[in-house]
Amino acid sequence: MSLNASDPSIQGCDSDLGVEESDKLVRFVVHGVLLNAIGAGGLLGNGLSALVLSRPQMRSSVNCLLVGLAACDTVLILTSILLFGLTAIYPYTGRLRYYYYHVCPHITPYAYPIANAAQTMSVYLTLIVTVERWVAVCHPFRAKALCTSSRARWYVLGTAAFALAYNAPKFFEAEVYTSVDDGDMIYCVRPDWEFRTEAYVAIYIHWMYLIVMYIIPFSALAALNACIVRQVRRAQAERARLSRVQRREIGLATMLLVVVLVFFLCNLLPLVTNSFELFLENQLEKLDPLVKTSNLMVTINSSVNFVIYVIFGEKFQRVFLKMFCAGRLRRRDSPEHTRDDSFASCGERVSMRMTRNGTLRRSEVRAARPAGGGGGGAAGRPRRAPSPAPTVYYPAPLTDVTSASLQSDTLPPSAARWNGHARVHF
Which residue among 33, 41, 325, 388 is least enclosed by CB atoms within 10 Å? Predict the structure, then answer.
């Protein structure tokens, strides 16, 4: 980053010159209102997703990948809010001036490449999740060896290393310079034209971005999900013959198909926008509304996974309700709610059967007392008092059964860029 003194006769930043009020309004609505609101919900949803998916009963290879996806989506949302959401407020409302001119310019050279790295990691983790589901559904005999939690952690770390290495040049694309606004010194950001040569822009920013971020992952996702859909349809036709584990894998694959479908829909507009920039570079100003909308779509894609998990993930629903609605479930729980042993773990089934068997032995004790306590003696001889019955003969408290049912799981289991007008977008 370098500091260059700007022309003192120019008031404000170069990127603020010639911007119409209608453009400021569109930017405020799309980024200042919608992006900030959706991003705030996405931060909450990703935090809850990571919390639920990291529980011991949710431990699996695909959930480890989904925790990594939630983490990089959180970083992407944060950087989107810092770069786009908060900076859209001052030009239209006049508020957050200090952030606009003093905070954002200093964090942009670092937040901008981090945002790109988070988006790259999000794209390729989505691809890895799809590969994992393809192996589990289409090649189940190999899944036990290939789809493990330890391997999933290495996949996440490897994807993060690749994303940072691929986006490392972006740390040198921006520079900070000083300017004057209403007599006060302010800071602005612009592209470093010495670093961004024509060859760099054409090869790295345009073509490599199109190939690495869209052509390769989109093609692989389309092919793999076509195989998964074909296998899911075949399995649905033979659902009665599927084992419990196979049905669970099919259900998980269906949920992740929805995740990939949302990914395609939200990244379609950014793909079109970047393709237009590649072939219509002289008409970038006309693409500005599309650029702002594509930034919003990328933020939406990073924010909706929690909603998908809640709607389509049955086990995710149960663990989430168990963690955050345990009081209500405890009040509603009763003996009839604990009778279905098919939804309990192995240890839970054993303890519940022992308790119920114990409640049936009181009549057996009563029937056995005359034969064992008073036979063979004189009529006047006092009957010997029977020994105390073992505690297993008496009914166990209902709280034991209830707590057993509540303490175990009931089922098994965008890349941004600078254009020629000193703005960033994914």
Answer: 388
Average pLDDT of span 19-29: 89
Q: How far apart are CA 191 and CA 172, in angstroms?
A: 9
Nearest to 62 by CA among 1, 139, 125: 125
SS3 category, 412:
coil
Per-residue pLDDT of 190-223, as tens digits, reads: 999 889 998 998 899 889 999 999 999 999 999 9
Q: With beta carbons less than 8 A apart as the criterion, state whether 426 and 362 touch.
A: no
The H or E element spanning position 322 is helix 314-324
Other CB atoms within a 10 A radius of the CB of residue 279 amount to 8
Question: Which residue in 312, 313, 133 sits closest to 224, CA to CA?
Answer: 133
Global pTM value: 0.73
Q: What does the pLDDT average to over 127-155?
A: 84
Of 323, 294, 256, give the one whose Cα is nearest residue 69: 256
CA angle 393, 355, 56 (to 5 degrees): 150
- β-pairing, 174-181 vs 3-5, is parallel
Residue keyed to tokens 């989505």: 126
Three-state secondary structure call for residue 174: strand
> What pLDDT digit, counting tens, does each position of 390-407 carry?
444 434 333 333 333 333
Tokens of 110: 């670092």
Task: pLDDT band for 272, please (50, 70, 90 cuts).
Answer: confident
The SS3 assignment for 376 reads coil
Which of 198, 203, 193, 202 is CA-nearest to residue 172? 193
Selection from 17, 6, 421, 8 nearest residue 177 by Cα: 6
Of the pLDDT bands very low, low, confident and very high (cuts 50, 70, 90), residue 237 is: low
Q: Mean pLDDT over residues 48-68, rounded?
A: 90
Band (pLDDT 50/70/90 cuts) for residue 275 is confident
φ, ψ for residue 158, nearest 5 deg = -65, -40
Q: What are phi and psi of 425, to 5 degrees?
A: -155, 160
Q: Which residues have a Cβ under 8 Å from the Cβ of 334 and sit 6 or more positions away?
A: 398, 402
- 142 C-beta neighbours (distance < 10 Å), count: 11
Sequence-ordered alpha helix ranges (H) in 139-238? 140-146, 149-166, 198-200, 209-210, 216-237
Alpha-carbon dihedral sign for residues 62, 64, 69, 70:
positive
